[in-house]
Amino acid sequence: MSRGPRGGRESPCDDIDGVVLAGGRATRMGSVDKGLSLLHGRPLVAHVLDALRPQLADCMISANRNLDVYARFGAPLVRDAWPDFRGPLAGIDAAAQRSARSWLLAVPCDTPGLPDDLAAQLWRAARRAGGDAAYAVIDGNPLYPLCLLHRRRFAALHDALACGQYAVGRWLTAQNAVAVAIDNWCGPLLNLNTPERLADAHTVQPWKPDSPT
């Protein structure tokens, strides 16, 4: 039975691994572990995992602290290869070293409400462009860490990090990544990366009333 998006559209889910990026310092959150912050009674990382798992062959969590807590979510854990917090690219690189599929989808842990065809939207756009990389654009704003990469880009990613190149947008531009306007985003807010944004999100009704909260 297909685990892809509803509606019978072409789904690449069996050839895409995913990683939820929860390994940063979260300085704008007061250095609390952002992925474990609660929204509607559940950790942010749980919201994102629930949305991604039906779309992918497997989904990992990139984490560098509280590993015992993250292990409870039943997803493989990956850690950065470098100890100095080199940002989202380092989390993507760690998952790339573990992935056995052709494609890897990376999603920040502070983006709940993902559409159920997110992976397919990015995959179709990359395939149409004949490219190896794509990233999400939401309401006209690029969300570079939410990106899809073909494994042909994995070596270039690792080399960039080894050379001190940490900017996600700059690296994706160098890979000729396709910007993809994402349809059907159903989350309350994007980038819940400050206490104020997370507090605002609690005032919004859950975006999927039939999901556990």
Describe the secondary-structure layout.
Elements: E1 16-21, E2 38-39, E3 42-43, H1 44-52, E4 58-62, H2 67-70, E5 77-78, H3 88-98, E6 103-108, H4 118-129, E7 133-138, E8 141-150, H5 154-162, H6 168-174, E9 178-181, H7 195-201
How would you summarize this macromolecular structure in one to three sentences?
This protein has 213 residues and is of the alpha/beta class. The chain is built from seven helices and nine strands; from the N terminus they run E-E-E-H-E-H-E-H-E-H-E-E-H-H-E-H.
Poorly predicted runs: 1-9, 196-201, 206-213
Top-tier CATH class: Alpha Beta
How is the biggest beta sheet arranged? 7 strands, mixed
CATH topology: Spore Coat Polysaccharide Biosynthesis Protein SpsA, Chain A
Strand order of the largest sheet: 5-4-1-6-8-7-9
